[in-house]
Design goal:
The chain has one domain. 70% of the residues lie in helices and 0% in strands. The chain contains 7 helices and no strands.
Length: 122
């Protein structure tokens, strides 16, 4: 697999811009960050509600704030990173790729997501 350097440059530039915006502006105070469409439609918190504020807290080293705004990120981000890594390294580590894409990991992610959604809405 070859990496398109132009695409990677664009992705890196967008990432730097987003990180800078989330560092400078607090999503709970700045009015230009998008609200959660699920919360607008249903009135309930989705599994991702609070992520923008959690990112802001993380960038400022406030791990308590991260957990307060969206504790699922503590489990979700490492899991997503591991899944992406397993896909990028599937040729070199096929067993790791097979495990990370197994029904067990998918079921774990689904159960954690549903449990978190129920917990934060009761």
């Amino acid at each position: 697999m070859t990496v398109d350097k132009k695409k990677m440059g664009i992705i890196a530039a967008v990432a730097v811009i987003l990180i800078t915006l989330y560092y400078i502006f607090d999503p709970s105070e700045a009015g230009f960050f998008p609200p959660c469409p699920s919360k607008l439609l249903t009135g309930y918190d989705c599994p991702g509600c609070g992520t923008q504020r959690a990112i802001h807290a993380f960038l400022h080293g406030d791990l308590g704030g991260v957990i307060h705004y969206n504790a699922m990120l503590v489990v979700g981000v490492p899991l997503v990173v591991a899944i992406f890594a397993s896909n990028m390294l599937r040729q070199k580590y096929p067993r790791f790729h097979k495990f990370m894409n197994s029904n067990y990991v998918i079921a774990f992610a689904a159960v954690i997501t549903v449990a978190w959604t129920i917990y934060r809405n009761i």
